[in-house]
Amino acid sequence: ISDVHQAGETIAWLATHFDEAPAVLNVIDPIPATRRELVARVRRDSPALRIVWFPTALLSLVSGLGIVVQKIMHPGRPAVSVKAAFDAPRCDTARIRQIRVEAGATEMPALTR
User: How far is CA 18 from CA 13, 23, 106, in A?
Assistant: First the structure.
């Protein structure tokens, strides 16, 4: 997730510093939001949605059982992990932080998280 203004500034920097720009860059927030912050944002922006907290341990158990059931019911076909669908990918934000600083970021968040 990235703020539109941050993404725009980053893309503008990439366009004006084409030779220095990396071949691939994920335009993400240099300091990713926590799950709590994301939930607060969803509650604020979409109050009609219902949010349910599901414990990770229970999700792992249900996902494991689901994989076993899928393998029994459809041998030879790849099983789908429910847990994998809900896992948050880990991203290295060092390069986007550096580019945001070089771009003269107007809203560079403090590195406190």
Answer: 8, 9, 21
pLDDT of residue 35: 85
- How confident is the prediction for the chain on average, in pLDDT? 85
Kindly report, residue by residue over 19-53, the tens digit of the pLDDT. Answer: 988 888 888 888 888 889 889 999 999 999 999 88
The candidate with the shortest Cα–Cα distance to 91, out of 9, 30, 21, is 30
For residues 13 and 80, the answer to whether their CB atoms sit within 8 Å is no
DSSP assignment of the chain, as one string? ---HHHHHHHHHHHHHTTTTS-S------SSPPPHHHHHHHHHHH-TTS------HHHHHHHHHHHHHHHHHHSTTSPPPPHHHHHPPPP---HHHHHHHHHTT-SSPPPS--
